[in-house]
Amino acid sequence: MTGSSTVLLLMDLQRNIVERYPSAAVLERAAAAADAARAAGIPVVHVRVAFREGAPEVAESNRRFAPAKARATGGEHAPEVQIADAVAPHPGEPVVVKRRVSAFAGSDLAVLLRALRAERLVLAGIATSGVVLSTYIEAADLDFDLVVLSDACADADPEVHRVLLEKVFPKQAAVLTAEEWAASAA
């Protein structure tokens, strides 16, 4: 699993999302996965959701993002939408800015993955029922080989988290702990 055919995606591990989840353990496991990836020569790509000042990209009909539109200040450069310090990008690691739930939606992720010759994506992030699920579906449809790091994901609803990890994700992905994946990436 070494080389550029595998890419680790750390998704939505940004300050304004991390603060809403009991995520210290998730951040530790995501950081450990990133360290293992770097040691194995596997690219680490960070993904975050952000909007321009005033969130002009958000339609009033968008139930997920419209309520936050009024609070959107500072735009995509605001401190609260930056990656959490515990998993901060290392120099040279790309940060993809997306405009919707999936890491692919409104971003240049597909272009970046093509340039990296990615075949396998390793997914970690918050929330399991949000960015992880949406990205998993789109990546599976794009024929990527997928791995989901079960303990480097979090969700507000523990039952939804469990069902996704135990019943949904295994249909098209290997579901491993960060430690299991790190051992196989070495």
Automatic annotation (TrEMBL):
The keyword Transmembrane does not apply. It comes from the Bacteria. Pfam families: Isochorismatase. InterPro entries: Isochorismatase-like_dom, Isochorismatase-like_hydrls, Isochorismatase-like_sf. The keyword Kinase does not apply. SUPFAM superfamilies: Isochorismatase-like hydrolases. Residues 6-180 form the Isochorismatase-like domain. Keywords: Hydrolase. This is Isochorismatase-like domain-containing protein. The lineage of its organism: Bacteria, Bacillati, Actinomycetota, Actinomycetes, Micrococcales.
